[in-house]
Amino acid sequence: MLVLGIETTCDETAAAVVERHDDGRATILANVVLSQIAEHAAFGGVVPEIAARAHVEALDLIIATAMAEAGRDFGALDGVAAAAGPGLIGGVIVGLITAKVIALVHKKPLMAVNHLEAHALTVRLTDETPFPYCLFLASGGHTQIVAVRGVGDYVRLGTTRDDAIGEAFDKTAKLLGLGYPGGQRVEREAARGDPSRFNLPRPMLGRQDADFSLSGLKTALRLEAEKIAPLTHQDVADLCASFQLAVVEMVVDRLRYGLRIFRERFGVPCALVAAGGVAANDAIRKALLNLAAQEHVALMVPPPSLCTDNAAMIAWAGAERLAQGLCDGLDSSPRARWPLDQVGAPLPGPRPHATATADGGALSSHSSLVGDRRGGEPRDCGPKAPYTSISTIDPFRPPGEEDGVPSDTVPSAVA
Ligand code: KG4
Ligand code: ZN
Question: Of 74, 89, 150, 163, which is closest to residue 117 (Cα–Cα)?
Answer without folding.
Answer: 150
